[in-house]
Amino acid sequence: MLAVLCLSTVPARTADDGGDTPAASLPEPADPIVRARERQALMAVYESLGGPDWIQRDFWGSDRPVGEWHGIETDAEGRVVRLTIYDNNLDGKLSPAICGLERLHTLHLSFNKISGALPDTLGDCRALTNLWLKGNRLTGRIPDSVAVLPELEYLDVHANRLSGPLPAMWDTPKLKILRAEDNKIAGALPETLFRQPSLEQVFLHSNKLSGPLPSSLTEAASLHSLLLADNGLSGPIPEDIGTLQQLTDLRLNRNKLTGRIPESLGDAAALQVLRLDHNRLSGSIPTGLAAHLTVFDVSHNPDVTSD
Fold it and tell me: For the whole model, what pTM was predicted?
C-alpha cells in the first residue's frame, strides 16, 4: 500500500500560549466593593491551588495592588483581565470563585498539578477568550458551560486525564482552536462543534472517541487542521469533505473508518497532509490525489488499491 513520508502527530505551536510579557499594571478599581470582590476571588484561587507552595507568589495576599501580584495583569481601570501562572507548582482543584473576576479574558494555568473536575460554573466567566489548562491532571468532562462561552477563541486542555463525552451543544461563535488531544475523552463527535463559524483547528487525537464523522464536518468552511488520529471512529469519511477549501492537514489515521476515499479530496487544493493509514478503507485511490500532497499515507488499509 502507498505510504509517503510519515509526519509526527504532534501539531506545531499554533497560537500564542501566553508566554509574552504582560503590560504594566495600573492601580486597583476605585470602587471598594469591586476591589474587595476581585481580591476575594484571587485569594480563593490561591488557597485552593496551594498558594504557599507556589514557586513564584510575589505579593499574593499583600496590600499591594493586585496588578503587582505575580502573574496578574489588569486593565486601565485596575480590573483583572489576565491570570498567567504556568509551570508554578499549582496543586489542587480550580475554585469556582475564579469567575468573580468578571473581566478575565485569559486564564493560563498550564503545566501545573491542577486536579479534579473543572467547575461547572466556569461558564460564568463570560469574558473568557483564552482558556489554557494543558499539562495538568484534570479529570472528568469538559463542562457544558464552557461550550457556550460567547467570547471563547482558544480552548486548550490537552495532556490531561479528561474523560466522558464532549459537550453536545456548542455555541461559541468566536472559537478558532480546540485542543483536547492526549486525554481519555469518549463518545461521539458532536454535530454542533463543526458548525462554529470561526473554527480553524481541532486537535482531538489520542482519545477514545467513537461513532461516525459528523455530516456537519463539511460545513466547517474555515477549518484548516483536523487531527482525529488514534481514536475508535467508524463509518465512512463524508463524501464532500474535499469541499473544505481551507483544509491543509487532515489526519484520520488509526481509527476504524470504512468505505471509499472520497473523490472530492482530489479537489482540495490547499490540502498538504493526508493521513488515512491503519483504517478499514476500501476501493481505489482517487486519481491524482497523491500528486499535490506533501504527506500521503493510506498504508494498512488492506482493501485499498492504487489503480
Answer: 0.91
C-alpha closest to that of 81 among 110, 136, 38, 19:
38
Are 72 and 80 a contacting pair, CB within 8 Å? yes
462561552: which residue's cell?
149
Provide the pLDDT for residue 26: 59
61 in Cβ contact with 84 (< 8 Å) = no
Q: Count Cα atoms within 13 angstroms, Cβ side, for 149.
A: 29
Alpha helices in 49-181 (DSSP H): none
Helix residue spans in 6-61 (DSSP H): 32-48
CA distance 241 to 221: 10
- Name residue, grid cell 463570560: 126
pLDDT surpasses 60 at 125: yes
Q: What is the pLDDT of residues 188-240, one digit of tens each?
A: 999 999 999 999 999 999 999 999 999 999 999 999 999 999 999 999 999 99
CA gap 268, 248 in Å, rounded = 8
Cα–Cα distance measured from residue 222 to residue 196, given in angstroms and rounded to the nearest whole number: 9
243: left (phi over 0), alpha (psi -120 to 50) or beta: alpha
Say which DSSP state 217 is in: G
Distance from C-alpha of 75 to C-alpha of 154, rounded to nearest angstrom = 21
